[in-house]
Amino acid sequence: MSKPQWPTRxxxxxxxxxxxxxxxxxxxxxxxxxxxxxxxxxxxxxxEWDRGLVAGAFSFGFIASAVLTxxxxxxxxxxxxxxxxxxxxxxxxxxxxLASYIxxxxxxxxxxxxxxxSGSICLGYTGHSLFxxxxxxxRRGLALSLAFSGVGVGSILLLPWLQALIERSxxxxxxxxxxxxxxxxxxxxTLLLRRSPEELGLAPDGDDSRNIRPGAESTNIVDPDxxxxxxTLARAIRTRRYWWIASGYFCGLFVWYAVQVxxxxxxxxxxxxxxxxxxALGFVSLGAIPGQILLGHLSDRIGREWVWSAGCLGFxxxxxxxxxxxxxxxxxxxxxxxxxxxxxxxxxxxxxxxIPAEIFQGKHYGTIFxxxxxxxxxxxxxxxxxxxxxxxxxxxxAMAFMIALGFCGFSALSIWIASPRKIRTVAGQTPGHST
Length: 435
Description:
The protein contains 20 helices and no strands. By secondary structure, the chain is mainly alpha-helical.
């Protein structure tokens, strides 16, 4: 059977269509998961459940959905991304619709916890990082950051609108409306997805596959012995680099979601208006738009380690600002927290897929990355739960934010030790390559 040829006649590289699809899909999918922070307060007010119990639903969803990630990697390696994204849309939409009928804690854990979190794994950074890196090499960081910047646009459009809907019609109606929107908007986009440029007779970055000089694709290799290995999951998990990446990702996502889930409730408690707290959550992702694009582009020029470190620095500043806001709740400090978290912190996503892609590049990359993301999900699950439990035990988030500060430093150190730059250089460091 011949390969489809119609996409090759487009006046631009088909990979950019996938970037555009990811921009929209993530703009909705990731922010639906973020919206748990907006549902958190009204659910607490209605049921008067313990804060750790409610936050635990978010953590439970992360842990339970973690079993999906290795399976998703294998699915994308064998069947492509279309089935995975469609699965994510179905899980998320169904979870939101059913959440409007919550009356018991286990309902919360099954809907906004298990179903929505499982869907967000498919539609979020993990799912798209399984196949988008295949489409770009020289512009890998830029392409991923452009795709992921859809989260910022979606946040400023979706989250304030959702907060207004919650205040006007209640959180149950908001869940129903959001679930229907996810199903109707995102499902048709899955028809445009492809696994790799080779399926369409193309080469990464839109290069003419007929004119690529033999060996040209290998000019960025620093360690030819490592790059020559056919990296399978079994081989990868026996390396120190795999576990250093896993450690860095665990700590980075621990901080990310410990802050994200509790941020809105924390800001309201220390004196900010609910709508301002919702806008702050939205502006974090809005600030991520230029930050992700700039840092993604820079990662193609200066290396992935520097950008991951910049993201960790952003979250460190964010945690320090949150600690200071408790005693000095003013808007300039709030703006610093939002800017550091969004512009720098969310820049982590621009290299999330690029770091392991350059170390374990090959036909089994999806399986390796999917398994590696178990550590990220474990961090994302543990962070909110630990922060909630610390607050229940002490009446304060101070210890949680201080722990997060330490995790920021260890995460950056871990990626430097993993050293993707010692396997493959980025385009800006490779003679004859251009970003």
